[in-house]
Write the structure tokens for this entry.
Amino acid sequence: MDTGFRWTINLKKMIEFLIWILNATTWILLVIALIALLNSSLVQIPVAHYGNVIRLGKRLERSVREGYQFKLPFLEKFLLIKQELKTLQFKKPDPIKIFSIDNLQITLEGSIQYRYDFNNLRKIPEIEPETIKKGMLDSIEDSIGIIGSEEKGEDFRQNKEIIGQMINCVLRMERPPHYYVIENDPNDFNNNPSQSFLDYLERLRNAKISDQKLVKQIDHLEAYLWEIPLKSDNSNLNILEFYLKNKSRIETMLQLEDFLFERSATEILYNLDVRTFKLTSVDFSTQVTEALEAEEVMKKEIIAKQKRQDAKIKIMEELIAKGVSPDKASDDADVMLGIAKKNIVSGGNAFNVLNNNS
């Protein structure tokens, strides 16, 4: 009886011990599983990278920045995309080309620095760099070409800094500044600005801008402070002159653009964040330059011939006044001006030998 009782007690203790082992093992396994789960859920995005979430092979709208980020374990992963600035060059033989009102082709050379738009990373790898470059080129030529077609070639060529500012506005701003003016009657902009411009100023005032100097600059963008130059018809805005006269205000708008998180039509189309456009040269095309040089040479030749003719007439008048016959005076004047050499006697007849440059 005692032996059986002891066996019963020992068996009971053994079972309790096994249960304890099982529970402990279960807890250990649960901890291990939890660690594995956390390890699978926590991912470090490297410095200077974005991460676009891929779930079950499908890219999502959700994107994350550098640092430790969470994801659904075993179901999600991150596509890493570098934050680096990329550069597109526009130079010969493929510069930006526009035509002036006097039908002269003007070439613009420069470069665009951009990076991928964090809010649209899902679409980034779908667009080839050459497609982006072609789209940028078309956007600049369309927008700046309209302005250039209203200006003389020389006037446009001499305003390199302003042209660069205009291109930056087209590529980086939701609406270039002159759009707010031409939306309604330009004559009335100072007293009655468009609602879209008032909304723009309100968005700036509500933006989180830590630099108080920039905040104060917003007051200088009030509509009544802008200069509105008009064309000769006094009804349409002279766009190039508008940018010239309001250069500092427009530069302020470009500086504040980063705080609005708004995108231009080009940026939205190609899912980019354009940081800057640097214009290196504005000049006439090679064909136009050669034609202008040839025209200049022709003008100089005409002027030179006119001066020689005037000098010849003056010399002839002086010789005739001294009794020299008109024919002899003309010949002597040609010799004196280098148009012909001195008389040469041949077979009893005298004649002038003309210079090749006559």
Summary: Confidence is low (pLDDT under 50) at residues 344-358. The chain has twelve helices and eleven strands. The longest helix spans residues 2-41. The longest strand covers residues 272-284.
